[in-house]
Design a protein that fits this description.
- The chain is an alpha/beta fold.
- Helices cover about 15% and strands about 20% of the residues.
- The protein folds into three domains: about 30-65, no CATH class; about 65-150, no CATH class; about 155-265, no CATH class.
- Strands 1-2-3-4-5-6-8-10 form an eight-stranded parallel β-sheet, with no helix packed on it. Strands 7-9-11 form a three-stranded parallel β-sheet.
- The termini are far apart.
- Pfam families: F-box (PF00646), LRR_At5g56370 (PF24758).
Length: about 270
């Protein structure tokens, strides 16, 4: 199953793989390499990995197939995720991780493995624990410098390391039910500003800590290449919009009965 920002689900049931043909001859291997790789890319990840049982020549074919989508669901054992990330020899263009609470401690090493493989499209969806305490995304996320698309769900965004220059290649950023922690508005402002190519920004029901009087510090969304902006929140968290010369679509929805305090400059 592909994790999404809207919920959870079970992986579709798959049928057991059978030998290539009854007499044991591997006729599939005679197909062009490009066709074999396309077959693998069309399979669910677990089925692609299980093709290693078809025949000797298929043992490592999945691991050497470029363009596989690495999609993991919460039910996947952490050891299985470790094995796939260690065994896959190509760069990873697309990875989706649905993380169960008991696997939160593994996320740092998974992100580091993906960063080393040049991850470009990353979905990181945490399944809330019964305690409702959101896990913090490891700061190793900022080592994923090749990211062009990032979706985070149900987590605490990490503080920006002083040495980080953000995501220089990021085109799309989606933050769903993300907590920015103390001084989080400044983290949000810096993150967006350090993504100079950003074209699409979605912030769904964030949480930012107020001061002792219940007020939020003003912070500014500056994104000179932004075309699509969507914000849905319980209240106005103090954002302002500035330097959005290419904006084509903007939707800001507040659940609060009070009118938002939003200003646009420029």
């Amino acid at each position: 199953m592909v994790p999404s920002s809207s919920g959870q689900g079970k992986r579709p049931r798959t049928t057991p793989l059978s030998p290539a043909i009854a007499d044991g001859t591997d006729h599939l291997s005679s197909l062009p390499v490009e066709m074999l790789e396309e077959i693998l890319r069309r399979l669910l990840l677990d089925d692609a990995v299980r093709t290693s049982a078809l025949a000797k020549h298929w043992r490592y074919r999945w691991a050497e197939c470029p363009g596989l989508k690495l999609v993991f669901v919460a039910e996947d054992p952490p050891a299985a995720v470790d094995a796939v990330l260690a065994g896959y020899t190509c760069n990873v263009s697309h990875a989706q991780l649905e993380v169960a609470p008991e696997s939160n401690g593994k996320v740092d090493c998974w992100i580091r493995a993906l960063a080393a493989k040049g991850i470009r499209y990353l979905v990181l969806c945490f399944i809330p624990a019964f305690s409702l305490i959101l896990p913090t995304v490891p700061a190793s996320l900022f080592s994923c410098r090749e990211l062009t698309s990032l979706l985070l769900k149900s987590c605490v965004f990490p503080a920006l390391p002083s040495s980080s220059d953000g995501f220089p290649n990021l085109l799309a950023l989606q933050l769903d039910d993300v907590n920015f922690g103390e001084n989080g508005e400044m983290t949000a402002e810096a993150l967006i500003a350090m993504s100079p190519l950003l074209r699409s920004l979605g912030i769904m029901f964030p949480s930012i800590d107020a001061d002792d009087e219940g007020n939020y510090s003003e912070w500014t969304i500056r994104a000179p290449n932004l075309k699509i902006l969507r914000i849905c929140a319980w209240e106005d968290y103090g954002w302002q919009l500035d330097d959005l010369p290419l904006i084509e679509e903007a939707c800001i929805h507040l659940e609060s009965s009070e009118l938002p305090r939003i200003s646009y400059q420029g």
